[in-house]
Design a protein that fits this description.
The chain contains 18 helices and eleven strands. With 441 residues, the chain is an alpha+beta fold. It folds into three domains: 2-51, no CATH class; 60-183, CalX-beta domain (Immunoglobulin-like, Sandwich); 184-441, no CATH class. The protein has a five-stranded mixed beta sheet. Helix 12 runs parallel beside helix 14 (357-368) and helix 15 (371-391) packs parallel to helix 17. It is globular. The N and C termini lie far apart (66 Å).
């Protein structure tokens, strides 16, 4: 009868510590056995084996639970990622939220959460320093007015570095509804309107001062609807024009444009790539709070260094390129924004080591930050951000089938020399049914 008892113990250990290999389960049974007198020196101790932390062969990263939940009006859903085993070195892991309803109509209730309607797509990389065992991912939630019941979506871990994925590498995230009946559209509320712009454009919750300032801009109109319509457009546009967005989201746009030009289609970057990279650059940055300039500079440099080592970048810019070829190709992709003197200076930065990643990253940032480049791409990026920020989709995603809508608004903005108010660009997206239906009827 010893075999089925030992097998049952192994099964219990596996359930309690799912990251253990078979060999380590056997070792844990032996290690936690009770020492007894007699011809048999060890007796299995199931209680001890289930309450003693086992030794593992390597670092394992996983979610602390298979399911996490939050109320819709709690602003965010927090997910805990844990690291067990050998934590004496740094490790990292990628994460991304996913759902099967991102293109769905927000007014259709099917128990599936949507990144367009219910939460903000959250993508990034967690880095555990030596000895660190826990990290938290905070996912912003959208407090709509639909009585839609509970909804769920998924978060996944992938691409571990100096670690392996544990058994719980995917978790189900549940949003409980706070509405018993569908009410008026909350986006008409000044505070909800402002908060939504923070999470849609800056990927963070508003700071108190910022929330109060922009909310007061709207409420200062009182009952004057014409004043309010103008203020809503100006407040909205201010988020795209802000230093924080220009040095995060717009920087990501220019990085893709300089790296790949128009080879990827009408626009240089897709929504999910844009969100992942913008969230990476903006992590820990809040303009006006602390030493945000140093944090932003560090984030930018880290981003550029990682970007030039990506497979798609190295395919476009193989290490065999000379310094002159590297600079010329970036300039061509950017639309010919560099002067002869600019090129000479950047070629000198690369020097005799044009394949060096740090030098490549510095040159890429220099092109991305060039004033001529910023000016040349401003209108195109402004229009693209209407789709990314307000509609949470690519310009050619359903209900569109191509870039005709994008091109219409770009032509109109150009015809008004970039005056978004005269072109009625922002206004059109704010009053569109597609935008408003994200939040309510």
């Amino acid at each position: 009868m010893a075999a089925p008892i030992a097998a049952g113990q192994a099964a219990l250990i596996r359930a309690q510590f799912p990251y253990l290999t078979g060999r380590k389960i056997v070792a844990h049974i032996e290690k936690t056995a009770a020492r007894v007198q007699g011809p048999i020196h060890d007796r299995i101790d199931i209680g001890e084996s289930l309450t003693t932390q086992p030794e593992v062969e390597s670092t394992m990263i996983q979610f602390s639970a298979p399911t996490f939940s939050a109320a819709e009006n709690s602003n965010s859903l927090n997910v805990t990622v844990t690291r067990v085993g050998n934590v004496n070195a740094a490790s990292s892991v990628d994460y991304t939220t996913t759902d099967n309803n991102s293109a769905g109509n927000c007014g259709v209730f099917n128990s599936l959460a949507s990144s367009r309607c219910d939460y903000i797509t959250t993508i990034g990389t967690l880095t555990f320093v030596q000895g660190e065992t826990s990290k938290t991912i905070s996912i912003p939630l959208v407090d709509d007015s639909y009585a839609e019941g509970s909804e769920s979506f998924t978060i996944r871990l992938s691409n571990p570095t100096n670690a392996a994925l544990g058994a719980t590498s995917t978790a189900t995230l549940n949003i409980s509804d706070n509405d018993t009946q569908t009410g008026p559209n909350p986006i008409d509320s000044a505070s909800a309107f402002v908060r939504q712009h923070y999470i849609d454009f800056l990927n963070r919750e508003p700071d108190t001062d910022g929330l109060n300032f922009w909310t007061n801009e709207l409420t200062s109109c009182g009952s004057d609807q014409q004043c309010l319509a103008v203020k809503r457009v100006n407040v909205s546009a201010a988020f795209f024009l802000s230093i924080e967005f220009q040095d995060t989201g717009y920087l990501v746009y220019r990085t893709y444009k300089a790296s790949f030009g128009n080879t990827r289609g009408t626009v240089p970057v897709q929504l999910n790539d844009f969100l992942r990279d913008t969230q990476q650059i903006g992590r820990g940055v809040q303009v006006g709070v602390g030493d945000w300039q140093t944090q932003l500079a560090s984030n930018r440099q880290s981003y550029a260094l990682a970007f030039v080592q990506r497979a798609d970048f190295q395919t476009a810019f193989p290490n065999t390129l000379t310094a002159e070829q590297y600079v010329n190709q970036l300039d061509t992709n950017a639309g010919g924004v560099l002067s002869a003197n600019d090129k000479a200076n950047l070629i000198a930065v690369l020097g005799s080591l044009p394949a060096d990643a740090n030098r490549r990253a510095s040159v890429l940032l220099a092109v991305v930050d060039h004033p001529n480049f910023k000016t040349a791409e401003f209108n195109r990026a402004f229009v693209l951000m209407q789709y990314f920020g307000y509609l949470r989709r690519n310009p050619n995603d359903a209900p569109d089938a191509d870039f005709s809508g994008f091109n219409f608004w770009l032509d109109k903005l150009n015809s008004f020399n970039g005056d978004y108010a005269a072109a009625e660009l922002v206004k059109a997206f704010l009053v569109s049914g597609e935008y408003r239906q994200r939040f309510g009827p």
